[in-house]
Amino acid sequence: EKARADVPGAEKKRWTLNDFDIGKPLGRGKFGHVYLAREKRSNHIVALKVLFKSQLQQSQVEHQLRREVEIQSHLRHPNILRLYGYFYDQKRVYLILEYAAKGVLYKELQKCKYFSERRAATYVASLARALIYCHSKHVIHRDIKPENLLIGAQGELKIADFGWSVHTFNRRRTMCGTLDYLPPEMVQSIEHDASVDIWSLGVLCYEFLYGIPPFEAMEHSDTYRRIVQVDLKFPPKPIVSSAAKDLISQMLVKDSVERLPLHKLLEHPWIVQNADPSGIFRG
Ligand SMILES: CC(C)NC(=O)[C@H]1CCC[C@H]1Nc1nc(Nc2ccc(C(=O)N(C)C3CCN(C)CC3)cc2)ncc1C(F)(F)F
């Protein structure tokens, strides 16, 4: 039926593949390919993520996908990738997602090796604002890492891939994500709450500035031990300000209630002095 545009959320339009012109492949996600696409009626450019039902079934992630769609479709924030809708056919599920014109952040980090303090602070501040918004809706992401971040046309960061996010009403003890970003309470799989995202943001800030995550080790078991012991060391190179180290040290704290709250992060001197308020890194 005609999509009702007057009442937001009432546009329960039934999308089909015929609504889109499919463009170039943007790359591979976990369970399928992502294509550039244009919605024919509006000429709106989107990213179409194609997931194979067979792969979803054999990996038993259908419930996770349903939760990802449910959560991401209701979130509206400039630093959170929009999920506009979904549809499916016999063999595939299609997610209609916001197109991030400047691509994936981790490739940018690999290319630059590490970011300037201004660029790192600008990204960390915009992610903190996005997480404050998520937590205000009782959503924790639980998988904040460079691979899950995209860059919009103006250079702004977009958190994507809410596959591991949960509504904190029904907290899960499931293990998720690579170990590097998990805080002590998750690697020890005890109860956890929104402060897990503060820990991961601290890990991300460290990796933006040094090019490697803080607890990286050759063996899984060594990474695990370094996390639970909070074995935090700052290399002599590249040179990083003591203000940045101070912020990271206040986020990578074992006791989750002691971690710097996100709204306090936005008032930290390193953020105030280095982050561009618009969340856009102009270089
Ligand atoms: C968060 C999640 C874990 N990650 C993903 O989903 C990944 C998996 C595949 C792509 C990406 N997913 C998305 N990517 C974009 N934009 C985009 C991506 C790549 C390039 C790029 O550098 N090339 C095409 C280059 C151009 C140059 N050639 C040489 C290499 C590829 C440029 C723009 N927008 C939305 C999405 C989304 F998320 F909506 F699907």
Question: What does this protein structure show overall?
Answer:
- With 283 residues, the protein is of the alpha+beta class.
- It contains 10 helices and 9 strands.
- It has helices spanning 53-58, 62-74, 105-112, 117-136, 184-187, 195-210, 220-228, 242-251, 262-265, 269-274, and strands at residues 20-28, 33-39, 44-52, 83-88, 92-98, 139-140, 149-151, 157-159, 166-167.
- It has a 5-stranded antiparallel beta sheet with strand order 1-2-3-5-4. Strands 6-9 form a two-stranded antiparallel ribbon.
- Strand 4 and strand 5 form a beta hairpin.
- Helix 6 (195-210) runs antiparallel to helix 8.
- It is globular and about 55 Å long.
- The N and C termini lie far apart (47 Å).
- The model is unreliable at 1-7 and 170-175 (pLDDT under 50).
- The structure holds the ligand CC(C)NC(=O)[C@H]1CCC[C@H]1Nc1nc(Nc2ccc(C(=O)N(C)C3CCN(C)CC3)cc2)ncc1C(F)(F)F.
- The site of ligand 6Q4 has 18 residues, from strand 1 and strand 3.
Rounded to the nearest angstrom, the distance between the terminal CA atoms is 47 Å
Question: What Rg is obtained from the alpha carbons, in whole angstroms?
Answer: 19 Å
Low-confidence stretches: 1-7, 170-175
Coarse morphology: globular
Main β-sheet, in a few words? 5 strands, antiparallel
Q: Give me the secondary-structure category.
A: alpha+beta
Number of helical regions: 10
SSE order: EEEHHEEHHEEEEHHHHHH
What hetero molecules are in the model? the ligand CC(C)NC(=O)[C@H]1CCC[C@H]1Nc1nc(Nc2ccc(C(=O)N(C)C3CCN(C)CC3)cc2)ncc1C(F)(F)F
Strand order of the largest sheet: 1-2-3-5-4
On the 0 to 100 scale, the average pLDDT is 89
Strand content: 15-25%
Number of strands: 9
